[in-house]
Amino acid sequence: MIRKMLFPLACVLFVAAAAQIPEELFNDSHDVNSLGAWGPYSKQYAGISHVGELSGGRRVDFAVMPGLYRRSYSVPNVLYESGYHPWRVDPQMTDITYRFDLEWKDRVYVDVTYHVLDSLRVLVGAACVNNTDLPQNILLHNVMWTSYDDDYPRAEAVNTAGTTVRYGCDYASFEPAVRGHDYALVYDGWMRGEARDGRSLSGSVLRDFGRNSGDRVEYRFTAAEACSEGSFALRCKLAEGRRARLKVSGIREGEIELTGTGDYALVRFDCTLEQGGNCLTFESLTAEPVTVDALFFGDAAAVGAVAVRPRPLVYKPALTEGDNGLLVKYDGLQNYYAVGWDYPMTEIKEFANSDLDVFMRRAVHRHPPRYFTGDRNGYYTSVFMRPIVLAPKSDTTIYSLLATGSRQQAEAALDGFRGGGRALAETVAGRSGGGDIPLLPEAADYAFGEQLLEATLLTNVVYPVYTQQGYIRHFTPGKNWNSLYTWDLGFISMALNEIDPVKGFETIRAYTTGEGSQSAFIHHGTPLPIQFFAYSDLNNRLQSDSAAAFLYSRLKRYYDFMVGHNPHSTTRMPSGLLRTWDYFYSSGGWDDYPPQHELRSRTELYPSVAPMVTTSYYLRAAKILRMQARKMGLQRDVAQYDRDIRMLTDAIQRNAWDDEAGYFGYVMHDTAGRPVSLFRYKDGSNFNKGLDGVSPFVAGICTPRQTERILENLFSPDRMWTDIGISTVDRSAPYYSEDGYWNGGVWMPHQYLIWKSLLDNDLTDEAHKVAFTALDTWNRECRASHNSFEHFIVSSGRGAGWHNFSGLSSPLVNWFYSYFRIGHAATGFDAALSRARFSDDCTHYTAEVDFEPAAAGRNVALLLCLTPGPDYEARLDGKAVKTRSPYPGLLYVSLPATARTARLEVKPCKTND
Q: pLDDT band for position 19 (50/70/90)?
């Protein structure tokens, strides 16, 4: 048996059971299907939400809001620091705890835990703790409300019987006359021409059709029977007084003219319908933009009856009060909701306002009223418990129940809860979501920071997010970013690979697309290939050939677009270097990185300037895909990657190295796309002294001389190294700033990729320095503030930026698992593991290792966490290889890279007793 080395109870972490990807998850969904109907999905207040219908765009939210009785309310707004902290979450997200500090720090607090019992019920426990020498009076508001998507339709069509509807973006094809850079990569995974509009019938429209003469869109539908007196109605919008002429073909031939009113209008036309398949094609004859909302097809009478009316958003529910229970029914939702409680001093409060942050707090001293009326653009129903008196140095836990389902199911749940809250609590006490993680003793110093980061990551998930014509649940860098975010989610996927590989797989899949999709991948923000790096880690972690093969073809679509193989991509320059300014202003995610920031004010240079990070990281992506293609026997793909790797490597090495500075530079090109010089600062120095300037090291293409100079810069305390890690910008550069966002800061993501590259060069001491400096910095800040920050300021060493952030801080999860989790193997990029296995007691490890061809002739490092106690030895193809153990249980294995698959065995050394 594994000896479990766990940290104190206050710092318990959890690990999911060994996972394989269920077959049903090999699909085209962009949702995280393994998430439950209950989850921390709110974009407004921290708690738990229920999504009854994924396609609906609505959720029901519930949040416990503690406070000091007749003094203050703690309203946990997720959009700014508001006195709560994600505290502890298990990998399955069935036990979610938030801490509310009512008297900082840990003197008076409430730990609110949402225990998901099943798909219909959640037990809510509010553990109220008084660590002071005085009595305390606590209150609990248990608040429920419903939320709509920002673009939820506020209009509806009526009298539609006998008609077939196609919304604006339900076209069979849309071909703009002018194809832009985004023709095959539409932002946020939307459809070509799509825009979101809450005044439409579906929330989406085809916007600006006809901006150019020759735009063409086709709609298809099926008619049950032929109709010579058919009709179609077009709901559309043009600017007031403008006229658009369209050529029409299919069910009607000829031309039509539309006249704008500045608002949506229904326009009807005669047509002829065939039994079975029909099509309607519009081609713009004028350069006049038209917004297409919907089309209705049918016989003239049915289409003539169609009308559109406003559909106001209804927030106020119908309430049915019972004995220690409340039944709630929201307009337009099938399910009923219920709240049950067992605390005697309870009453119902109702707040008719868009938010509670100020409105509720202003009402703290208005004791008698039940109803508080504000702007009526929201409605909050609260089960108000007060006072909860805590003696000095005491605690108590108050339970309530959430339930949903049919009315009968909700009422049955309330009946079962009455007087049984503590019995239900016993059923969830001690459950650990799959088992405690076995950790090396050295983990204890870092456990608290890891606990907070995992809790933050697993609660940074929102619904609804719109992409690919549907709503999804989506992990986000922080709830400040209510959106997709491509490169951040790559790092979140890498962390999820450790916490729950199923979710890791799904979040990679979410950013890829299948054949037939208009977009090569799901793009939002910086288009770096972090999903490929997560894919490499997932393959080593999961050991699933089917998952690797499924994701491979999707990632290749992504890759082909970004390196210029897709004819609609504009990334590749004639020099072979890649630049992505057409798609996003930030090449490496570093908003104010000096040369990139300079280009934002000199956008005329965008077509002629290439950074290093894009070419370098896609070069590494090519190597990752090549290793997988070799494994799958895809020789044509291997040959393509061979060519790409040569091209990209040559483009960097010919044009970008600055030996005087020891950095690669941004490369300037002439109007023909020929490289002419490096992009230099006004004093003539290399403008790229920083993370972008060392990014070819991550690609694994540096010469020994270049590697030496880059390492000097990375670890020089006068240049990039600081007490808290690697600075984004060389501190000796004239453009270094102490008050920037990235410039003057230390961030985790690129450091993590440098760490992996250090392992590829068998530089385990340097890798240790990077990882443990990051872990020390992180844990120190977590203990001080209980926050999970974006970045750290070099001048102070303190955390800054978004306070409940996971995104780019997620690599700390990978470092923690790599150095402390017993039964864990970690590599750089140049070694791929297959058929890897730890013995049950984690004292033996075997694997087959494939090496990146460019690694031949050097050693790469493997990190293994084994059961401490024995001394270990390692053999590769039967030959002893170097090992080193910085502390018991952690083993550094130095692997000589070979051209063929090698077999690794690690086991305890033989002893002569």
A: low
